[in-house]
Write a structure and sequence with these properties.
Rossmann fold, 31% strand
Length: 258
């Protein structure tokens, strides 16, 4: 618990522009701890505004939204800053739009296309990154319908078995190549993927898109998906700049070889 509180303090100091903002951020970050101690409870239908150095961030009062602040907005876990050259950013598995928000804060005017199958999450992307093109759809190998597990608060649609209860729901899925072709997208400056077990499906439906993509940053789940992602990216002409696995989750960072 001490380490977690230290992380919360670091995040609050980094994101808050004033002591009042830092206190508000710290209070929200501690919600899960307070719920475990039974001195608070969630109100998942409520959306609140959090003032930060990046402007107003919108979060739902659930167990998951606020937990993304340290990794995405402080630690820059996808390692993206100012992108070189032209081209769009594709945020696949956008969740509530914090990565999209970060990218646009670092690259004003850069076009961002966000993909998120959960309607509630897609609405949050629109709040957090109004400049993004938000697509309420999943990405996969083919045009189809996919059954994924959704948690009780509607935070995550996943193909991975979870320790908490999920309910199977059906979502429309299209290949990324289909979307990129329809939209006439040329160069892709960055492709980010965080799809909770669907990462290989996304890559398999993105062969043409990968050929015009400069950088990829993605989360992986399990050894087979991790190794499969590396193999697919290398086959598509990417250099693996870094990769790691910690427990069941990993990450792969790749760039196009010139």
């Amino acid at each position: 618990m001490t380490a977690r509180l230290a992380e919360f303090l670091r995040c609050a100091r980094a994101l808050g522009a004033t002591p009042a903002q830092q206190a508000a951020i710290l209070w929200r970050l501690s919600k899960n701890l307070r719920v475990r101690l039974k001195v608070a409870r969630y109100h998942p239908a409520q959306v609140y505004a959090l003032e930060t150095r990046l402007g107003t961030i919108y979060l739902r009062d659930n167990f998951g939204d606020v937990t993304n602040l340290p990794g995405l907005l402080v630690d820059n876990e996808y390692r993206v800053g100012r992108l070189e050259g032209d081209g769009v950013v594709l945020d696949v598995g956008a969740n509530i739009g914090l990565f999209s928000r970060w990218v646009q804060s670092q690259n004003p005017g850069r076009a961002v296309h966000a993909f998120e199958p959960l309607p509630g999450n897609a609405d949050m992307v629109r709040r957090n990154c109004p400049g993004a093109r938000v697509n309420n759809v999943g990405l996969g190998r083919d045009t189809a319908a996919m059954r994924l597990g959704v948690d009780q608060h509607g935070i995550m649609a996943t193909a991975i078995e979870q320790r908490w209860e999920t309910q199977a729901s059906e979502f429309p899925v299209i290949p990324l190549d289909q979307y990129v072709g329809q939209e006439g997208i040329g160069r892709v400056a960055m492709l980010k993927i965080d799809t909770e077990g669907m990462e290989l499906d996304v890559l398999d439906g993105a062969g043409e898109t990968l050929r015009r993509t400069q950088r990829v940053a993605m989360e992986t789940h399990g050894a087979d998906r991790h190794d499969g992602a590396i193999a697919r990216l290398q086959a598509a002409g990417f250099r693996i700049d870094d990769e790691y696995r910690k427990g069941g989750t990993g990450a792969v960072f790749a760039s196009r070889q010139q």
